Amino acid sequence: MKNPFHRFRRAFFTGLVVVIPVGVTAWVLWFIVRTVDGWLGPWISRTPWLKDHIPPAGGTALGVVAVLVGISVVGTLANSIFGNAVLSAFDRLMARIPLLKGIYSATKELTTVLFAGHHHAFRKVVVFEYPRRRSWSLGFVTNEVVLESGAALYHVFLPTTPNPTSGYFLMIPAEDAIQLDISIEEGLKIVISGGAVVSEATREVIGEKIPIPSSGPASSGGV
Q: Which of 75, 74, 104 is nearest to 91 (CA)?
């Protein structure tokens, strides 16, 4: 029977993996909303019609709407040729600042993977034996190439834990990879949490897909 303290510690750290990203995201969004609300509040109080028709709580709601619209406008501009050029110049500027470049680049890479839709470059989640036999790794197929021999070759991105923005590019035979019937988001969740956050459905899929050979006769002199 497992030690209750060990069970509590495991549950606690698993909870941290779930709570911290949600808490940080909520805090950042709330900070942005409160900042915009702080800018809009004095402006609303100085405008007679708005002051008479928008209650105090309405100012916060207006701040939320302004944040959503503002972020969408920034995204639209970023997708344009001019906006892309401005962002590229800003990226180069940030890359020259010793202290900020590490924070900026890491934050941008992570948000790009999780929010900007780049994970759609991942076609499916697979597991394969790496770096040795009977040691399984989880990766994401980015491309499939058919060779002249007719064999299929997977281009696989093998992310690192807990930072999925870095990793390895591997080319493996398709027949050596086992596809998991789970979403890309579920696969990223497993990688980021180091396997601590796995849904019951995913556990069943992994258990069904990965062949675990039955133990052979006990060898003498084993540890």
A: 104
In which residue are the tokens 């040691």 written? 135
Q: Pairing mode, if any, of strands 136-146 and 177-180?
A: unpaired
**Secondary structure of residue 30 in the 3-state scheme:** helix
Residues 22 and 111 in one domain: yes
Residue with tokens 């180069």: 92
Backbone angles phi, psi at 125, to 5 degrees: -100, 130
* Burial status of residue 146 (CB atoms within 10 A of its CB: 0-12, 13-18, 19 or more): exposed
How far apart, in whole angstroms, are the C-alpha atoms of residue 188 and residue 173? 22
Number of H helices, E strands in the chain: 7, 5
What average pLDDT score do residues 130-140 get? 91
Give the CATH number of the domain where residue 132 resides: 2.30.30
Q: How many domains is the chain partitioned into structurally? A: 2
Band the pLDDT of 60: cuts 50, 70, 90.
low
pTM for this entry? 0.50
**Strand intervals (E) in 67-135:** 124-129
- Domain assignment of residue 97, given as a range: 4-115
211 vs 213: which has the higher pLDDT: 211
Claim to verify: residue 149 and residue 164 sit in the same structural domain:
yes
Do residues 191 and 159 lie in contact, with contact meaning Cβ atoms separated by under 8 Å? yes
Final residue belonging to a domain, choices 80, 115, 150: 115
Note whether 55 and 72 are same-domain residues.
Answer: yes
Greater pLDDT, 196 or 135: 135
- pLDDT one-digit tens code per residue, 156-172: 999 888 777 678 899 99
128 and 182 both lie in a single domain: yes
